[in-house]
Design a protein that fits this description.
PPR_At4g14850-like_plant; mainly alpha; elongated; 0% strand; 227 residues; RNA binding
């Protein structure tokens, strides 16, 4: 990679290079860049450190990501979002929830990206209790009207088979997307309620949207841009 071969580029180019690295093939280049950054003027830059964090997450190197995060002298909401997101992606859902709580304890305000990633974490819990508490926090933050957050709430309740709660979330949404409709249709169909499945399907067609089950499954595992 050009960034690795030519040393440390400017800050924006460096961040761009780090964002391109992923998977096992990108880990070696990422580590070489990290080693160069340690001896550069941007070693304590929060944006660069956050980009490094994301790189280790995409490369599946959780231990290095956690170690880097602990040694950061400055963090932003984007940094916390990156940590929560990579923890969920790599299967450390308890760590994701702990990071969310620590973020709040340190006075940071949760964003759309924070809530979406944390909702993915609580979706893997044994019970819905954590999800209900998180939903209450979302309402208090006024981000319950955010389309992406609402779709994540729909997915949460659908995973636990709580159709009534999912319907209440849907009814309270100021706007819908094809993902919103698809999650709700899938939710009712998974419960075997074919009458309401068909009714919502017709409502969706009336709204001009087209059902796509792939959107539901993509929404379960998709990564939200950190905000």
């Amino acid at each position: 990679m050009l960034c690795v071969n030519e040393g440390i580029p400017d800050k924006l180019s460096l961040i761009s290079c780090l964002k391109e690295l992923s998977g096992r093939s990108g880990l070696g280049a990422g580590k070489r860049l990290h080693a160069s950054i340690v001896h550069s003027q941007v070693k304590t830059d929060v944006a660069v450190s956050t980009a490094l964090l994301g790189m280790y997450g995409r490369c599946g190197h959780a231990d290095e990501a956690f170690r880097l995060f602990e040694h950061m002298t400055e963090r932003t909401v984007v940094t916390w979002n990156a940590m929560i997101s990579l923890s969920v992606r790599l299967g450390y859902v308890d760590h994701a929830q702990q990071s969310f709580q620590q973020m709040l304890n340190e006075g940071f305000i949760a964003s759309t990206g924070t809530f979406v990633s944390t909702l993915q974490a609580v979706s893997g819990a044994a019970t819905l209790n954590d999800g209900v508490r998180l939903h209450a926090r979302i309402i208090a933050s006024t981000l319950d009207s955010d389309l992406i957050v609402s779709n994540s709430l729909l997915t949460l309740y659908c995973k636990f088979g709580r159709v009534e709660q999912a319907q209440r979330v849907f009814d309270g949404m100021p706007q819908y997307s094809i993902v919103s409709w698809t999650i709700l249709v899938t939710c009712y169909s998974q419960q075997g309620n074919w009458f309401l499945t068909f009714q919502i399907f017709l409502d969706m067609q009336t709204s001009g949207e087209v059902y796509d089950q792939g959107r539901y499954f993509a929404g379960e595992s998709g990564e939200v841009e950190q905000q």
